[in-house]
């Protein structure tokens, strides 16, 4: 009799664990479905992002600060939207649309309520608003999107003091690849910058406005 009670208790414990595991699986499925619902196809979202600057034959282009698969900066075309791409075939098998929850790909942008002066950027470039659409994954402070197009230029990160400043404090761009923004204060403190091949800020802003037809918030 004791043996039967002991077996019965073991069976009850096993059943309990089976129920817990089934509930856990159901819970995880619900979480996964909820996460997938964040992967929405929206008309658009507006975010804030940084671009690096490419100066080529006296012309100016916005480029992604991270290198592409060919180890080169990816230029943002002025005549068509920028589309995300990814070379991770293990994740993007079949007809999976970029970006994916299982990968870090996509076009990145901060949410508009983010103060760019409180963020740490890994590069020195110009910062502005960007329209995002297609497949969008929303995160705590930003987005990853399938398509994007620049809207405006409002800030920049000085390549010397690394301060995030309003675009009207941009003095010049040192001619490197990518070009390096220099603020008014640093250009006065370190006049050797003026001896290098450089372009005035007015040249940069006028060319960006001409090529992309976007607003310059001065």
Structure summary:
With 218 residues, this protein is of the alpha+beta class. The chain folds into 2 domains: 1-38; 40-218, no CATH class. The chain is built from 4 helices and 14 strands.
The residue fraction in helices comes out at 25-40%
Question: How widely separated are the two ends?
Answer: 88 Å
Strand content: 35-45%
From the structure provided, what is the oligomeric state, counting identical versus distinct chains? Answer: single chain
Count of distinct structural domains: 2
Order of helices and strands: HEEEEEEEEEEEEHHEHE
Got a strand count?
Answer: 14
Please mark out the parts with pLDDT under 50 across 5 or more consecutive residues, or reply none.
Answer: 1-20, 24-40
What is the number of helices? 4
Overall mean pLDDT: 77
Can you describe what's shown?
The chain has 218 residues and is α+β, with helices and mostly antiparallel strands. The protein has 2 domains: 1-38; 40-218, no CATH class. The protein is 27% helix and 37% strand. The chain is built from 4 helices and 14 strands. Strands 1, 2, 3, 4, 5, 6, 7, 9 and 10 form a 9-stranded antiparallel β-sheet that branches. The protein is globular and about 55 Å long. It starts with a helix and ends with a strand.
């Amino acid at each position: 009799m004791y043996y039967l009670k002991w077996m019965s208790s073991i069976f009850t414990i096993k059943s309990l664990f089976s129920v817990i595991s089934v509930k856990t699986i159901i819970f995880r499925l619900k979480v996964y479905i909820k996460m997938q619902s964040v992967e929405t196809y929206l008309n658009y979202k507006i975010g804030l992002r940084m671009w690096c600057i490419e100066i080529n034959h006296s012309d100016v282009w916005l480029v992604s600060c991270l290198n592409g698969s060919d180890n080169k900066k990816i230029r943002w075309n002025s005549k068509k939207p920028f589309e995300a791409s990814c070379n991770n075939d293990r994740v993007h098998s079949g007809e999976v649309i970029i970006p994916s929850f299982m990968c870090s790909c996509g076009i990145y942008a901060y949410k508009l309520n983010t103060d760019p002066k409180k963020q740490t950027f890994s590069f020195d470039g110009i910062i502005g608003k960007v329209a995002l659409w297609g497949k969008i994954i929303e995160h705590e402070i930003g987005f990853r999107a399938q398509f994007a197009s620049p809207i405006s230029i409002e800030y920049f990160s000085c390549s010397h003091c690394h301060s995030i400043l309003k675009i009207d404090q941009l003095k010049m761009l040192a001619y490197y690849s990518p070009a390096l923004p220099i603020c008014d204060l640093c250009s006065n403190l370190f006049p050797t910058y003026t001896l290098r091949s450089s372009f005035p800020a007015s040249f940069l802003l006028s060319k960006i406005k001409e090529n992309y037809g976007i607003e310059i918030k001065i």
